[in-house]
Design goal:
single chain, alpha/beta, six-stranded mixed beta sheet, about 45% helix, globular
């Protein structure tokens, strides 16, 4: 079994030879490629329809339900919290030790536990359960296997703790994903604050969804630091910066737009208190700021009592460009400690770069191989078409050999290497 996270951003997921399709949600995105919400939905309908054996789809997500309404696949299994889900999740309890829940399937209820926290992880586990059970595996064995899952890279990944301040990273780059991870973090942060470090991803998404990002961040984070846009494949667009997100906050004291990473890291350290969680958010290179934040935390004293009565907001919450930069007191860390911390951070950075390079290589290999197969198919049919045309032009003289070739290909009297074709 070969399991991949399908990439819908450019429609390449429609090239896969899919046996089982798992759809967790369909939130309109990548409209720079698809154009309209309807075209985006249609791509998912085509993706699911191509699955030879099984379609597993969310019963809770509105977009997924739109897609399901257009499917005529003979084998569809739904999962979620909805009462009509084939695999239904109930009794979800999330906390620092993970998330516990019940999976109800085929008249039986199975108690499950994951080592990772968050309601969204329970829902994702239900989708995985539906896939594996749908392939014929024993439900009890699947529940046991889920309990061993310890999370994945760049999903609420802890990078370090300095003086009681925890620094996490998450790949979330869509408002729905940001909502899910901040809701999960809220269940484990306790009395500390959630401070988001948000890097908007692509100019098109930032222009289209800045208001939605601001709404989610303001509602679920106690404070947000907004960096500038990570353009990825897109060229810069005049007027589209991280400030589009920060300016959409209703409470300006709950956000600081700081495009300079060095300033952002020192600002983060200046507002941190023991028990706080920092979470970098984005699918660009925002994780690269984490060593700077950890270093700044090592060097700066922890302030206390910087909260107000409005739900723990930082006071004041202004960027260094608006107020004097906090004084960095380096005497708290000895040269030896600074050297050790620097070496550790550099090793972690190199490891992450190696992992990132490996994953990029794997993605490119899959795409290259898929394109290779498509070219081979096109070349084969082009050759056959050319031979047919030549036969008609030359006449009866080549007609008999061509019929023999057709007999060979169709009847299989001579072995044809399908991989070569």
């Amino acid at each position: 079994m070969f399991v991949i996270e399908a990439d819908e951003s450019d429609g390449s997921f429609l090239l896969y030879d899919t046996k089982v399709a798992l759809i967790t949600n369909v939130d309109a995105d990548h409209l720079d490629h698809y154009g309209t919400h309807d075209d985006f939905d249609r791509a998912f309908v085509e993706f699911a329809s191509r699955a030879d054996e099984l379609v597993v789809i969310s019963s809770d997500d509105a977009g997924a339900q739109r897609v399901r309404g257009q499917l005529s696949h003979p084998n569809i299994v739904s999962f979620g919290e909805s009462a009509d889900a084939d695999v239904r999740i109930t009794d979800i309890e999330s906390g620092p030790s993970g998330v516990t829940f019940a999976l109800n399937y085929a008249g039986e209820s199975h108690r499950a536990h994951l080592e990772v926290s968050g309601r969204h992880n329970a829902v994702n586990a239900a989708g995985a359960f539906a896939v594996i059970v749908g392939l014929g595996f024993d439900p009890a064995r699947v529940i046991s296997a889920l309990a061993a899952f310890g999370g994945t890279e760049r999903r609420f990944e802890l990078h370090g703790v300095v003086d009681g301040v925890s620094v996490y990273d998450d790949y979330a780059h869509h408002p729905t994903e940001v909502e899910a991870i901040l809701s999960a973090a809220r269940t484990v942060v306790g009395g500390g604050r959630l401070i988001a470090v948000h890097q908007p991803h692509t100019y098109s998404r930032t222009a289209a969804m800045s208001g939605e990002f601001a709404q989610v961040l303001e509602a679920l984070a106690d404070h947000t630091i907004v960096l500038d846009v990570y353009g990825a494949r897109e060229d810069p667009v005049t007027g589209v910066t991280g400030q589009l997100v920060s300016s959409a906050f209703k409470n300006s004291s709950a956000v600081a737009y700081i495009p300079d990473w060095s300033e952002a890291a020192h600002y983060a350290a200046s507002i941190a208190s023991p028990g706080d969680f920092f979470i970098t958010l984005g699918c660009g290179d925002v994780y690269r700021i984490i060593p700077s934040i950890l270093s700044a935390l090592h060097e700066s004293p922890r302030p206390h009592g910087q909260t107000t009565s409005d739900g723990g907001r930082v006071q004041p919450a202004q960027s260094p460009a608006q107020s004097p930069a906090p004084e960095v007191k380096k005497e708290r860390a000895t040269p030896a400690k600074r050297k050790a911390a620097s070496a550790s951070l550099e090793a972690r950075k190199q490891l992450k770069e190696a992992v990132k390079a490996r994953k990029a290589f794997e993605r490119n290999e899959v795409r290259r191989f898929t394109a290779h197969l498509r070219r081979r198919r096109i070349t084969f049919f082009t050759i056959v078409g050319s031979v047919l045309g030549l036969a008609i032009f030359v006449g009866v003289g080549v007609f008999s050999p061509l019929m023999a070739l057709q007999e060979v290909v169709v009847t299989g009297t001579t072995r044809v290497d399908a991989q070569a074709i």
